Structure to design on (124 residues):
């Protein structure tokens, strides 16, 4: 009986771990290979950083413009509303660091005309 209890306990741990949701590492790994190089995953998996150059047209598949596509993919996969993407696009340099969060993740960003949009995704 004791062995059954231990097996049930470890079974529940495995189920809870599997159902715990999306990790930043899995989101990064799910990016199309051509966009993955535009999103930096921390070595400990604690954040994803993306820098977007707004001068790239949104429909351009050029690798230098892939950061915009990577940003869209990460926002979608982490479950952020489209309003967050809109707020990012309307951020000015004088607005400082902006943030948004959902139940599992937090995103913060800042904009500078010389550097573009600097975006950081973290676990909440």
């Amino acid at each position: 009986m004791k062995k059954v209890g231990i097996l049930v306990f470890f079974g529940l741990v495995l189920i809870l771990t599997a159902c715990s949701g999306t990790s930043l590492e899995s989101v990064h790994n799910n990016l199309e290979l051509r966009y993955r190089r535009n999103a930096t995953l921390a070595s400990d998996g604690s954040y994803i950083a993306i820098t977007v150059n707004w001068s790239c047209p949104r429909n351009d598949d050029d690798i230098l413009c892939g950061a915009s596509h990577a940003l869209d993919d990460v926002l979608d996969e982490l479950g952020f509303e489209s309003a967050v993407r809109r707020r990012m696009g309307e951020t000015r340099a004088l607005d400082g660091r902006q943030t948004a969060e959902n139940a599992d993740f937090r995103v913060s960003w800042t904009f500078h005309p010389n550097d573009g949009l600097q975006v950081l995704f973290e676990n909440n």
In short: Helices lie at 2-18, 24-30, 33-36, 66-77, 82-89. The radius of gyration is 18 Å. Residues 58 and 68 are 7 Å apart (CA to CA).
